[in-house]
Amino acid sequence: MSNNDMFFLKKIFVAILFFTIYSNSLANAEIWPNIISNFSVENASSDPAIPIDWLNKKEWTNDALFKYPINWQDWNRALQAEIKSYSNGDAKWYFKPVTVTPRSSYIFSDYYQSNVQTTVTIEYTSVNWIISTINLWTLPPSRGWTKFSKTFTVPANASKMTVFHRINKIWFLKTDNFSLSLASFWQNDTTPPLVAISSPLKNSVLSGAIQLSAIANDNKAVSSVNFFIDDVSFGSGLLWSWSNSYSLLIDTSAISNGLHVIRAEATDTSNNSSASANVNVNVDNSPPDIIPPIVSIASPLSWSILTWATTLNIETTDIWGIAFVHYSVSNGTDDIVWQLTKAPYIIQISPGALKNGSHVITVYAQDLAGNIGNASPITYFTDYTPDTNQNFILNPSFETWSWGLPDHWFHGIWWNNSGSFVYPVTWIDWGSAAEVTLNSYVDWDAKWYFEDVEVLSGATYVYSDKYKSTTWSIITARYTYNDWSGTMAYVDLVSLPASENWTTSTQIFTIPANVNKVTVFHLINSMGTLSIDDTSLKLYSTGSINDPNVFNNWMVSLTFDDGWSSHYDNALPILENANIKGGFYIITNEMKNSVNENRILNPSLEIQTSWNLPTNWNKSQTGDNDAVFSYPVQWVSWGNAIKVEITSYTNWEAAWKSSNNTVASNEPYNFSDQYISDVPTKVTLVYTMNNDSTQTIDLGVVPASATWSLASFTFTPPTNVESLTVYHSLISSGSLITDDYHLDLAQDYMNTAQVKEIYNAGHEIWPHSRTHPFLTTISNEEVINEISWSRQDLLDLGIIPSDTFVYPYWEYNSSVVQIAKDAGYIGARSVNEGYNTKVSDKYGLQIQQVNSLTTPQQWELWTQSAMENKKWLILMFHQIDYQNDEYWAKTEDLKSYVDYLVTNNIPVVTLKQGIELMSQ
Description:
Blueprint: H1 3-31, E1 54-59, E2 62-70, E3 78-86, E4 90-95, E5 98-99, E6 105-114, E7 118-126, E8 131-139, E9 142-153, E10 158-167, E11 171-182, E12 194-199, E13 205-206, E14 209-217, E15 222-229, E16 232-236, E17 238-239, E18 245-251, E19 258-268, E20 273-275, E21 279-283, E22 294-299, E23 305-306, E24 310-317, E25 322-330, E26 335-340, E27 345-349, E28 357-367, E29 372-374, E30 378-382, E31 401-402, E32 405-406, E33 409-413, E34 418-425, E35 433-440, E36 446-450, E37 453-454, E38 460-469, E39 473-481, E40 488-496, E41 499-510, E42 515-524, E43 528-539, E44 555-562, H2 565-578, E45 583-586, H3 588-593, E46 617-622, E47 628-633, E48 641-646, E49 653-658, E50 669-677, E51 681-689, E52 694-702, E53 705-715, E54 721-730, E55 734-745, H4 752-760, E56 764-767, H5 780-796, E57 804-806, H6 814-822, E58 827-833, E59 845-849, H7 856-869, E60 872-877, H8 891-903, H9 911-917
Parallel strand pairs: 13-21, 23-30, 44-45, 44-60, 45-56, 57-58, 58-59, 59-60
Antiparallel strand pairs: 1-4, 2-3, 3-11, 4-10, 5-10, 6-9, 6-11, 7-8, 7-10, 12-14, 14-18, 15-16, 15-19, 17-18, 19-20, 19-21, 22-24, 24-27, 25-26, 25-28, 28-29, 28-30, 31-32, 33-36, 34-35, 35-43, 36-42, 37-42, 38-41, 38-43, 39-40, 39-42, 46-49, 47-48, 48-55, 49-54, 50-53, 50-55, 51-52, 51-54
Helix pairs in contact: 2-8, 5-6
């Protein structure tokens, strides 16, 4: 079975497992004896800022602020009470009072997060409507989600009750996942729980850090699940909130290579227990693969002269498997660049896709371990003269028809809209045109489009038609790929304004690699009428098109929304190393509330001892190798870096190590450094415990990199840690240079110092509101506060923000736009997808959103479309991280795209520069 097949089966298993967990979670919620309505605050009331059956209250003198929804503990939503200034009293969320049984025992629980001490208080209502309160418990601060649970007895005269989880100090309190149930529900239970291991699978091969997972159910409740390997306990699993899945992360390097047996034991709240079936696995922590793949170009032959399509056939060999094959075909002025991710690595290249003359094919392959092998380049020639006068559209002027419809044409409307298609209508050329009307609009579009025509992959085409319309319309190309499934991709070519008279639209675009068919939609996605006629699709001839609405030169902008800490940790080093300027949109309240401190002393190695060594750093060599240490060497941040080099290697490692750093137990930390290495290297964490013992954990191996790259890991120190050090080591013959070390508490957003550092590096800083609200749902005064005062927040820091704004979410209207104009902004960016021309709305600039699902092919497709049509492509990013979240972009993908921009000399502008070019 191939690696791709294994990956596909794993994806199916994860999907089935998630569905099982989710289904069982719902089942558990139904039998759970919880008398609190909307206990997980998932359902909002008619007021979207308050959940159904919930209330909030501020007592006495403080400026409490209540937020809903916020980041969740269990499903999607949670509650927050925040006090910014305080004299007396408190603030709290609470559920509407529920009926209880006097003299009965109940169990109350919730999950909470707070940086200050908080109090849980019960409010009783008697049968005579007399209100009384009793403090149930005082809780310590907790930066992570922590469960509180307490049993109590209802007084004799009480008929109803609610619970206040109160904050009475300056800071915040987040709560979620509330439960109130009769204690008797848990008594007299003799039924043991059921438990089964869900991961790893039977006969799996394990290495490095892995997650053990088990699903456990009980007629009452499971209290713990313990995992055993060869009858030795490895610890208790953590429960996924509101599910029945328990997980434990272990390091298999602590286990000998070979066959092992895993089982799980579950215990319920009545101390009944049971064990799962055994799962046999094979542990293999063999040394990492450092052998690059072998790659060669089988065809075309070197120095061929071709007048027909070229078959590029790439052959590869690797022990562990190929991740992708990257190829480039170039004659120095124009290129075809693409990646293939599965065999066979064959591509058809039309001779018309490149200028006539000599072309160089370069190919490299990367294996699953990150090793890269290069093929010997091939040079070949093309001599091809295409017919640029042929119109590939059949019946381009709608002159022939059958059964009341034009031959070779189709129309389509999404079912949630209502509209009509009329043919023939008033003509512009011979006798007929086609019309579409949308009478009501919900989503998507309605359009006319011609029958798919065959095209040359890599060739440039020009599409034109004549249209008149009462609303904006869009021209979109639909590509059909030459694969077994007929994959389709859609690319918007232009947005066109309404026109009372017949107007000609002309668009130039390049057919992507592996595409063999295309059609073009002329569509509307708002209420109105569009008529089209006189359509044409021809091969592009240089100099034949002159559109005054396009830019003199195409361009790309990189924009980063919200001010996430990963922008500073991961995106900024990539941009700085490439000397590319981006733009960062800051939620200013989040920025002001963030704090940070690098725990590593002398992190950029600028301070030296009298022995010409970096202060607070030491050399470390273990095992049999001839490590040589150098300082200072070429730098990435300020002035100095450190280097270790090994010529003769047998075992162990060599590294520069920083002094031990004190940290807080059970708090997440981010470690990162910049490095250059010609071989894979390893990052290792060493804890020093309170009893002076040490614990060593390998965080991971990072691939070789000829340019400055980022190594980044997140970890949480366990209980009883006194200090730690993290070091980056050389584990084979080769060299390693490192610089710019960071060890920080993990935070969601950048702090003021980090934002100022980005600004001082020459990047644009823009306001993205104060609190990221839905601007169309708040008052004009609140909108002014969000738009104008977020700009002032930056000015107060000495940051002169760019005169541009980004609307939170997707919401803005004419009133919001006018407030942005009145605040002095020269333009604003939306999250509507598309490209920008000189006539685009400066206060509704369109974007393409980059996330974890965006492939390199899609990025290059957007870029090539902007290039061919001389448009402005704005890319929007959120988090830049390794997390498997749909809306986050991968760090390595951003680096690949930035390298692509630099390699191909693609013009990159900031948002302000782009807006200024719209007026030229």
